[in-house]
Amino acid sequence: MPAGKWKxxxxxxxxxxxxxxxxxxxxxxxxxxxxxxxxxxxxGAFGVTRxxxxxxxxxxxxxxxxxxxxxTGAAVxxxxxxxxxxxxxxxxxxASLAIDPIVNHGAKYHFMTAGAVKCPLVLRLPCGSGTGAAxxxxxxxxxxxxxxxxxxxxxPSTPQDAKSMLKxxxxxxxxxxxxxxxxxxxxxGEVSDAxxxxxxxxxxxxxxxxxxxxxxxxxEESLKSAIMLDSAGISAEVVDLMSxxxxxxxxIIESAMKTSRALVVHEAxxxxxxxxxxxxxxxGSDAFYCLDAPIKRLxxxxxxxxxxxSLEASQIPTASSIYEAALEMME
Amino acid sequence: xMSLSRHFEQKVNELFMKGxxxxxxxxGIGQEANHAALGAALDERDWVLPxxxxxxxxxGKRGDPYKLMAELFGIEDGACMGLGGSMHxxxxxxxxxxxxxxxxxxxxxxxxxxxxxxxxGDDSIVCAMLGDGATNQGMxxxxxxxxxxxxxxxxxxxxxxxxxxxxxxxxxxxxxxxxKRAMAFGINAAKxxxxxxxxxxxxxxxxxxxxxxxxxxxxxxxxxxRQLGHSKSDxxxxxxxxxxxQWLRRCPILQNRQLLESRFGISSSIMDxxxxxxxxxxxxxxxxxxxxxxxxxxLDKALGFxxxxxxxxx
Lengths: 331, 314
Fold this sequence. Notes:
The structure holds two protein chains of two kinds.
Chain A: E1 12-13, H1 14-28, E2 32-36, H2 52-56, E3 61-63, H3 68-80, E4 84-88, H4 99-106, H5 109-112, E5 122-127, H6 143-146, E6 152-154, H7 159-171, E7 176-181, E8 188-189, E9 202-205, E10 210-214, H8 218-231, E11 236-240, E12 243-245, H9 249-259, E13 262-269, H10 275-283, E14 296-300, H11 309-314, H12 319-330
Helix pairs in contact in A: 1-7, 3-4, 8-12
Chain B: H1 2-17, H2 32-41, E1 47-49, H3 55-60, H4 65-73, H5 106-119, E2 126-131, H6 138-150, E3 154-160, E4 163-164, E5 167-168, H7 169-172, H8 178-183, E6 188-193, H9 197-214, E7 218-223, H10 241-248, H11 252-264, H12 268-291, H13 299-303
Parallel strand pairs in B: 1-2, 2-3, 3-7, 6-7
Antiparallel strand pairs in B: 4-5
C-alpha cells in the first residue's frame, strides 16, 4: 500500500504512522535512506516498512546481511557524509551488537571533532515484552543509551507522537535512539500533521492527587489505571515523558508540585532504570517540599523476560499494579 | 614526508618523556613508508580514516603539522580544538575523516562513507586503515562482507606492524594470511613490503585505480614494523632486541636513502638537507605550540559541541 493513502484515515496504527513518517521524509529529502535487515520486499520483521520498497527501491533502501555492527557503522559513515540514514534494528535487543558505532562513534564524533562532523541518523528499536519471544527479543534497553551525552532518546506512546516525533528525528542533526514498542504497533489513533514540540513532555491526563510519570507503552497502562483511580475517587495526572534525553524537567517538577505525589512507571527493570533519574530530579527540586508521600517507582522485576505467558505478564507493570501502587501512596 | 613524520614522532616522544604532553600516544616510527605513500598515491579527493596510530597519516594526507602538534598540546588551535587528542585527529579540508581509537572501529564507517560517495556519483574512494590486530575484530569481517555485496569503493589498508600491543601477529592471527581473509569474501587483495615506499606507492596506486574502475573494494596488507613500543608505557618485554635490530636494518627511511642514492645518484648531503629541513619544521611547530600553550578551549564552549542541535539538558 502506498504510504500517502493512510493520511486521511481516522484511525491510523502506530506502525502505519511510523511508515508514513519515513515515507514523507524520504519523499521530501533524497538524502534519507533506510538501512536494516529484511526491510525490502519483506517489509521488516514487524511489517513497518511494508510498501516502501515498491515506492523507493534499492537505491533508497539498503538491505543488509545480519551484521548489526557493520551496518550500523556504515549508517554512521553515511551520516558523516551528509546522508540521513534511518536504521531499523530488527529487535531492539540487537542494538547491543551496535553499541560501538552508536556509543563510541555516532554519539561522540561531533564533540571529538569540535563540531566539524555531524551524525544525523535515527536508530529505530522495536522494544518491549508481551509477544512470547522470551529473554533475547523482549527487552527495554533504553538505559544502555541514556548515559551517553551526544545521543537523543525518544519514546513515543501514540500513533500521533510516533509520526511527528519520527519526522522530527529524521530531520535532526544528531543521532536519535527511537524507542518503539512492539505491542503498540497495532494501537490506533488519529494522526495529524502537527509538528513535534521537541524536548517537551505531555500531560496525557490532568489530575490533582498524584502524578504518574511514564513513557512508551506504559503510558497506556498508566491511563487505564487513572480511569480505575477515578472510580476510586482519586484524581491521577499522567505525564507522558516522550523524550527521555533531553528530559522536560520543568513539566515533571511542576506536576509533582501540583499533585504532591509522584509515581514513576516503566517496563525496563527497576535497578538502574530510568525511573531513578525522574525520581532523583523530583527529590532534588523544590517539589520535594510539596511531597505528601515518598516517591515510588514501578518497573520490571529483576529477571530476564520469561517465555511462559503468565510469568511474562506478571513481571512488568500493568494497569492493576499501577492502580495498587497509587492506592498505597494515597493512604 | 617520511622525514617529517619521523622527526615529528621523535619530538612527540621527547615531549612525552619530559612530561610536556599528557595522555597517551601511539607513535608510527618505522611505518613512515605507509604514511608517505598513501598520501601520495591517493587522490586529494579520496578520504582516509586512520587508526589510533595516526599522526603520520595526518601529515601524509597533507595535514598541517602545527594543528597536529597543537592538538597533542590540547590547545584551541588543534585539529579538534583539543577535544580529540592524539587518537582522534580530523582534517576535513584534506578529506581525513579522523581516526577511531576503537580497533577496527572506523572500518564499518568507511564502508558507509564509500556508499555515500557512490550514491552521489562521486568516484572518490575511501581508505579504511587498520592494523593486524583489527583483522580479528568481528566488525572487520562483517565489513568485508558488507563492502563486497554492496560493491563499496573502499580500500582496506592493513598495516601489519607485527604486534597488536604485545600480541604477536604470528601467535594471534590464525592462518597468518590477511589477504586470504578478504579473498574469502570475494575481495581482491595484495601483499606489499610496507617498508619500501616505492612498493607501497605502486600497490596503493594500482588498488585505487582498480577500485575506481571496477567499482569494487580491495585490501592491501602492508608488512612493516612498529619500531617503538605500543604506547608510552610499553617496555617491550614481549620481543627481543635482536628482532628489533633486524627490522632496524629494514627501516623505511634508511632503505629509501639507499635507493635514491644507488638508483638516482642523490647524494647523502642532499638527503641530510631534507632531514634538517623536516627537523627545523618540527622545531618551529613546537615553539609555536609552547607560545600558545595556554590557549585552552573554555568548558562552556566544549559543552556546546556535544550536540549539533545545540545545548539541550534541563
